[in-house]
Amino acid sequence: MLKLQKPNQKPQAAKPGLHPRNRHQGRYDFVALLAASPELAPFVKSNPAGESTIDFAEPLAVKALNRALLAAQYGIAHWDIPDGFLCPPIPGRADYIHTVADLLAGDCGGEIPRGAAVRGLDIGVGANCIYPLIGHAEYGWRFVGSDIDAQAIRCAETIVAANPSLAGAVSCRLQAADTAIFAGIIRRGEQYAFSLCNPPFHASAAEATAGSRRKVGNLSGKKSAKPVLNFGGRSHELWCEGGEAAFVGRMLAESRHFATQCVWFTTLLSKSENLPDLRYALKQAGAVEVRVLAMGQGQKLSRVVAWSFMDSAARQLALSKTG
């Protein structure tokens, strides 16, 4: 049965840029994190102000922090990913989930729909499975996660199987066609409340490497010709031909064929200069409703672009029986 929850009021000490329901306001509580995951201990150190922190330029430290955050905040007791796969910053991923929750609430009388009747599709679930883990923990939603990488799918399935609380909540599907996004994943008769996606940001391997070098240099204060990525990422997770503009363009074009099976299609869009062309393409595609929702991810400003081929009445009806 679909359950509704009114959005919480904004807490007084919310960190600028983070969603008011984001659990990661303020500094990390390392006492709680260490209690939930003692494996974090070797990576914790003091900053010049005497406060506990980790080296965010160190991949193993970032992975250990993520494991502790998932255990302490979301009840995920078992989580791991192989070296080289994307290890995403959790606060930003949580913001996307909460932003989608607010989007759905707009079609449900201002109340967030909760429970297993709400099903989402995560395009590019990755080995980390972060969006389904957070979405299920926060709102009880079910997820289908897709990916073109078979190893990523196996890793995500391992995480799900290792956590009994996720039984029946998350299923993973391999996208067999490199250029397809929804085709082959959304099956006949299935209905989704939303899809979400963090598309490849860069347009080439060289651009991805340059961006990683800048990021690691900013975190460590040191320049490196061959940076070790603190958040990792396989090639398809970091770049594709044409970058995010091309990827989102393909997503939009394909979404028209599943217009009656998904209430809201959404994606992150990092580059504001890509927004005008996307707005035009959405209009040409016949999207009935388009929303651009501002979102902060740490020091970076981003946005969620959401579109629907259903009018308000149709969205309300679809969300009342999603599943």
From TrEMBL:
Location in the cell reads:
Cytoplasm
Tell me the GO molecular function terms.
23S rRNA (adenine(1618)-N(6))-methyltransferase activity
State the Pfam families in the record.
Answer: Methyltransf_10
Any keyword Transferase?
yes
- InterPro entries recorded: METTL16/RlmF (IPR010286), rRNA_lsu_MeTfrase_F (IPR016909), SAM-dependent_MTases_sf (IPR029063)
Q: What is its EC number?
A: 2.1.1.181
Instruction: Please give the GO cellular component terms listed in this UniProt entry.
Output: cytoplasm
Q: Does the keyword rRNA processing apply?
A: yes
SUPFAM superfamilies, per database record: S-adenosyl-L-methionine-dependent methyltransferases
Q: Where is the composition biased (Polar residues)?
A: 1-11
Give the function comment from the record: Specifically methylates the adenine in position 1618 of 23S rRNA.
Database matches in HAMAP family = 23SrRNA_methyltr_F
* Family listed: Belongs to the methyltransferase superfamily. METTL16/RlmF family.
Q: What is the protein named?
A: Ribosomal RNA large subunit methyltransferase F
From which organism does this entry originate? Craterilacuibacter sinensis
